């Protein structure tokens, strides 16, 4: 007792208490999360899960801290009423949501460990039940094989490249926002991005760009990004910036080395 | 060395030619002309040989290119553009890329050669500037070089526009914007160049004539003049042992320099062919045909125009509306970035030799060049210009920087606006200090010799490091340093010794000149004449000579 009293006023005591509190809260949180995950998995396994109800549980655990307990939105996150299943599928399947850090824009990343087809479907069902919105497109709607690349290319150049660069290498927008590269986006994600307008992107609804045209654009994006570079290394396909770097770093450096080599032997005055 | 009688077929033919042209005498005089050796003297040849390759590949491209803005429907072999309406120029560029044998290689080599041509011009001009090789009698050749550089920029701009793809259209649109921004004549000039409202139907064919006929003709003529002048005036040489303003130390043109130069052509060709084969440049099929309504993120010009792009991006949106908008708009946000940096750099380059001569009053001929450290103000001015140009160039890619390094685009612009003022000033100060530091090292080399790494213990127990005298070649190079001249009377000497400055020095311009001359010229760090007084700590002995007179104390 005496010993504790003596140490109570130690300069580091307050930090020790704070650390203890954090460890306790963190440990408690981990325990609770693990338990509820087990419950959800058990329900799915037994086939009793109702998608909307399970989705609500997932939502409360992983989304509600920013979007509000009833998806009504908070200062940290917008309301999800009316965004539709397509928005959920896009954001969660591309790893953007749940967000890891607050920032100007959520980057694409490895999805959270609990994310799989089933959990996305459940979350999407719950959000869809709140106020409708664009539904997840069917496989045929996003099939690149059914699109016309040439027409898609024209639409892509007219609508997308201002931000996404001429073959979807991505680009910077204002204040730290960016148009992401389209190298990893799946056909479905491209379609969903167009109908939901995630983050800084505008919505291209079906009256602006018809579903057939969307499929054409997907065909172009997917086709061109898989196309080999006939001229050699693609240099990131971002245009003259990397070309200029190569001209100086490779071209001029090699030629200077050659010049030094050629003139290595010098004549001396007698 | 005698090779015996010349075989009759050769002797007959060469006699026939010599009796009619009389070239034998000329060749005898000139083939043995001496060229000095230094790697940096070959940098201009990068530009020269790239130009040769540009002419050859360019000629190949003209066989297949159609400089027309007429509409056609593409049905060549690049599938993602099939059925798209485009200009004939773009369709024929696609045809060259995909359906002409070797066409893509030629296009890519042409483009890489263009980049290396201008990069070669730049490094060559920098070499000439920093070594002071532009000084009398070579000022005119320097001016020809500045004109060549300017023409090369326009040659690049017109060539970049010819394929009529989306990216080249973006460059063309900015060009038109700059023309429009000119006060009074802008609108008229734009309609004149484009044959009506932008983009019109004429600009490609006009740029084609300029690109393949007018500018290459001028370039060829000026390059020839540049080389003839260099030949007649003789090439400058680096300072070194036995090199003076009256001699040239090096190898004869034939066979030594010819072999080196020929080999260097092969190297240049090789590097351009390598880049043309292994690195894709200007993939016009990915950009798509030009439509004035479309624009891509990351639209950049080729590197040599990047500084103009950067100045445009840094410029705040200033404009002046005269009498409301009734009197016309003066778009300073385009006019200033398009004309001011270009004007500063090109005019500055052209005037520098004459300004330096005015400031130093140096009217002597110079055939041995300066080491950059020995004229610290010139070197600092050069580094200031490089920093100014380089920062503008960097800012031309600020969107790529923002996207790649994930920083805010706005921040890159704000930082750039500050750096463009602060950076050049810092560059000046830092370069100046570095030059003086290098001069001190030179002075120490002469004064104390070179450190040998041999530690020696003196009889009284003191340890010293043995210094050896520098290599004669190095010593000759260091000792070549001469003070930068100052105009007579600027340093306070007066013609009559009565303390009254001469009449020329009394008006404001004269005073300014005297002040600049004092700052620019003079000896900043003098070389002491070695083996001098403060030898006590550093025994200067020859290598291996262990027991020579080490200073006893």
TrEMBL record, chain A:
Domain Cytochrome c, residue spans: 50-131, 147-225
InterPro entries tied to this protein: bc1_cytC-su, Cyt_c-like_dom, Cyt_c-like_dom_sf, Cytochrome_c_Oxidase_Subunit
Pfam family, one: Cytochrome_CBB3
Post-translational modification: Binds 2 heme c groups covalently per subunit.
Molecular-function annotations in GO: heme binding; iron ion binding; quinol-cytochrome-c reductase activity
Membrane topology: Multi-pass membrane protein
Subcellular location per the Swiss-Prot or TrEMBL entry: Cell membrane
Transmembrane segments: 12-32, 245-264
The organism's place on the tree of life at top rank: Bacteria
EC number, UniProt record: 7.1.1.8
Catalytic activity reported: a quinol + 2 Fe(III)-[cytochrome c](out) = a quinone + 2 Fe(II)-[cytochrome c](out) + 2 H(+)(out)
GO (cellular component) term, any one: plasma membrane
PANTHER family, per the entry: CBB3-TYPE CYTOCHROME C OXIDASE SUBUNIT FIXP, CYTOCHROME BC1 COMPLEX CYTOCHROME C SUBUNIT
Protein name: Cytochrome bc1 complex cytochrome c subunit
Primary localisation category: membrane
Binding site for heme c 1: 63, 66-67
Entry coiled-coil feature ranges: none
Binding residue positions for heme c 2: 160, 163-164
Organism listed in the record: Streptosporangium subroseum
Enzyme class at the top of the EC tree: translocase
Keywords: Cell membrane, Electron transport, Heme, Iron, Membrane, Metal-binding, Repeat, Respiratory chain, Translocase, Transmembrane, Transmembrane helix, Transport
From TrEMBL, chain B:
Domain of life, source organism: Bacteria
EC numbers, comma separated: 7.1.1.8
Bias (Acidic residues): 544-553
Pfam family, one: Cytochrom_B_N_2
Alphabetic keyword roster: Cell membrane, Electron transport, Heme, Iron, Membrane, Metal-binding, Respiratory chain, Translocase, Transmembrane, Transmembrane helix, Transport
Region ranges (Disordered): 485-508, 523-553
Location within or outside the cell: Cell membrane
Protein name (database record): Cytochrome bc1 complex cytochrome b subunit
């Amino acid at each position: 007792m005496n010993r504790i009293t003596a140490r109570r006023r130690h300069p580091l005591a307050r930090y020790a208490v704070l650390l203890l509190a954090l460890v306790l809260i963190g440990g408690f949180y981990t325990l609770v999360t693990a338990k509820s995950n087990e419950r959800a998995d058990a329900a799915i396994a037994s086939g009793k899960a109702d998608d909307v109800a399970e989705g609500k549980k997932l939502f409360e655990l992983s989304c509600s801290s920013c979007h509000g307990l009833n998806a009504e939105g908070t200062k940290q996150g917008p309301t999800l009423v009316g965004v539709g299943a397509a928005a959920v599928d896009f954001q969660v399947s591309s790893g953007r949501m749940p967000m890891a850090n607050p920032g100007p824009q959520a980057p694409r990343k490895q999805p959270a460990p609990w994310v799989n087809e089933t959990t996305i479907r459940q979350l999407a069902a719950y959000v869809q039940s709140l106020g409708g919105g664009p539904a997840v497109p069917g496989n045929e709607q996003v099939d690149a094989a059914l699109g016309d690349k040439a027409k898609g290319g024209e639409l892509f150049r007219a609508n997308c490249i201002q931000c996404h660069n001429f073959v979807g290498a991505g680009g910077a927008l204002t204040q730290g926002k960016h148009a992401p590269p389209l190298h990893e986006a799946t056909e479905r994600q491209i379609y969903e991005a167009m109908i939901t307008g995630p983050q800084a992107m505008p919505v291209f609804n079906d009256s602006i760009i018809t579903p057939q045209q969307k499929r054409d654009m997907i065909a172009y994006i997917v086709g061109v990004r898989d196309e080999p570079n006939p001229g050699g290394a693609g240099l990131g396909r971002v245009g003259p910036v990397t070309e200029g770097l190569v001209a100086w770093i490779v071209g001029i450096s090699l030629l200077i080395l050659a010049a030094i080599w050629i003139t290595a032997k010098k004549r001396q005055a007698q | 060395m005698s090779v015996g009688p010349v075989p009759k077929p050769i002797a007959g033919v060469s006699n026939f030619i010599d009796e009619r042209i009389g070239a034998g005498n000329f060749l005898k005089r000139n083939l043995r002309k001496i060229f000095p050796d230094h790697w940096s003297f070959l940098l201009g040849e990068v530009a020269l040989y790239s130009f040769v390759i540009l002419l050859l590949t360019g000629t190949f491209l003209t066989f297949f290119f159609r400089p027309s803005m007429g509409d056609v429907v593409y049905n060549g072999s690049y599938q993602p553009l099939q059925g798209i309406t485009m200009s004939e120029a773009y369709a024929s560029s696609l045809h060259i890329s995909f359906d002409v044998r070797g066409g893509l290689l030629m296009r890519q080599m042409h483009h890489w050669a263009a980049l290396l041509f201008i990069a070669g011009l730049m490094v060559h001009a920098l070499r000439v500037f920093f070594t002071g090789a532009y000084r009398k009698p070579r000022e005119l050749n320097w001016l020809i070089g500045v004109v060549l550089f300017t023409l090369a920029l326009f040659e690049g701009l017109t060539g970049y526009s010819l394929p009529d793809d989306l990216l080249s259209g973006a460059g063309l649109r900015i060009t038109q914007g700059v023309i429009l921004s000119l006060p009074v004549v802008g609108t008229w000039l734009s309609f004149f160049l484009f044959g009506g409202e932008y983009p019109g139907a004429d600009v490609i064919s006009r740029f084609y004539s300029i690109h393949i006929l007018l500018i290459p003709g001028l370039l060829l003529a000026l390059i020839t003049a540049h080389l003839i002048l260099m030949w007649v005036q003789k090439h400058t040489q680096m300072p070194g042992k036995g090199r003076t303003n009256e001699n040239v130390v090096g190898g004869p043109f034939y066979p030594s320099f010819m072999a080196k130069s020929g080999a260097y052509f092969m190297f240049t060709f090789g590097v351009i062919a390598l880049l043309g084969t292994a690195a894709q440049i200007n993939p016009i099929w990915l950009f798509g045909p030009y439509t004035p309504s479309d624009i891509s993120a990351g639209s950049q010009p080729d590197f040599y125009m990047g500084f103009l792009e950067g100045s445009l991006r840094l410029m705040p949106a200033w404009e002046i509306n005269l009498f409301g908008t009734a009197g016309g708009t003066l778009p300073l946000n385009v006019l200033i970035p398009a004309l001011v940096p270009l004007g500063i750099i090109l005019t500055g380059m052209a005037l520098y030799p004459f300004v330096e001569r005015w400031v130093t009053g140096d009217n002597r001929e110079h055939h041995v060049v300066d080491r950059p450290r020995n004229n610290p103000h010139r070197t600092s001015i050069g580094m200031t210009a490089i920093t100014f140009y380089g920062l503008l160039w960097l800012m031309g890619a600020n969107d790529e920087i923002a996207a790649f390094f994930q920083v805010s685009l706005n921040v890159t612009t704000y930082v750039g606006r500050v750096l463009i003022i602060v950076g050049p000033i810092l560059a000046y100060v830092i370069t100046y200090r570095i030059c003086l530091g290098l001069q001190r090292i030179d002075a120490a080399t002469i004064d104390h010799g070179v450190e040998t790494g041999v530690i020696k213990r003196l009889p009284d127990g003191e340890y010293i490091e043995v210094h050896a005298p520098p290599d004669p070649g190095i010593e000759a190079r260091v000792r070549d340093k001469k003070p930068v001249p100052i105009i007579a009377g600027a340093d306070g000497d007066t013609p009559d010794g009565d303390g009254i400055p001469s009449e020329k020095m009394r008006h404001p311009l004269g005073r300014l000149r005297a002040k600049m001359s004092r700052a620019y010229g003079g000896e900043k760090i003098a070389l002491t004449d070695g083996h001098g007084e403060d030898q006590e700590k550093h025994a200067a002995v020859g290598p291996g000579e262990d027991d020579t007179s080490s200073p006893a104390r």
